[in-house]
Amino acid sequence: xxxxxxxxxxxxxxxxxCRDAHSTSGAVLKVIPANSNGQIQSHADSGILSExxxxxxxxxxxxxxxxxxxxxxxALVPQISGLxxxxxTLSTAVTITGTNFGATQGSSSVKFSNNVTATITSWSDxxxxxxVPGGAQTGNVTVTTLSGTSNGISFTINASNKFTGGxxxxxxxxxxxxxxxxxHTTSAAIVKDNIPTGDVGQVQNNQQNGIFQDNYYWWYVKxxxxxxxxxxxxxxxxxxxxxxxxVPIPQISGLxxxxxIAGAAVTITGTDFGATQGTSVVKFSNNVTAxVTS
Length: 294
Prior knowledge:
single chain; 294 residues; mainly beta; 6-stranded antiparallel β-sheet; 6-stranded mixed β-sheet; 47% strand
């Protein structure tokens, strides 16, 4: 028989003999109570036809290991009882609780809506920890084992909070030739094409920033071109970022005057000092900090 496979979880559908051989004349090791759980063990004779029955070598939940007939066995389908959290962004760690997942992952898998498979970080019979995969959409999460696919429980994909309004962003190497669109959808008109790696823009204030649509997170950005082109660009694909936060390094172009005595006022010209001082400082040689007047 090929009804079951090694490591598969099964349930006794009624009281069932567990014998020391795949034969009705084998010694009864234990009468397994109905609804007891067991796991098919790897054995060359598993599924063998003997005396009109198919026999399987099973380790039952109480530790008893022996041969039982297929007629009173049913596959133990996984059941999900909960997700924690029930919403998040791509790459969020999610703990799935339930039963009948199996002690180890083996060929089993977790899928999110849009038929994408999650990366697993830990697996036990009652708990799985995974990360939300790229391409996932709001919808049901399921666990699939050799015994079948579980019930589904909904997971909501939240908006991204990677950036904020006013923040500078830059195109990464992976995001080379990025497209800027008129709306946060892949079908919207292109307002700026082939934005190259290294180009810098500024995230604009928009209530829909970070929205998840068409399998991407979208941001409303003004670009530093002659037309100050403004539109929607995607944050990245899966775990690969196409946009990154950009913090410019300040550059000094001149000092007026270039010499003087202690206490003299000095004007420093340059770029990327920031609109306000905040925690920024000016230092002179010997690592001394200057008081700033403007």
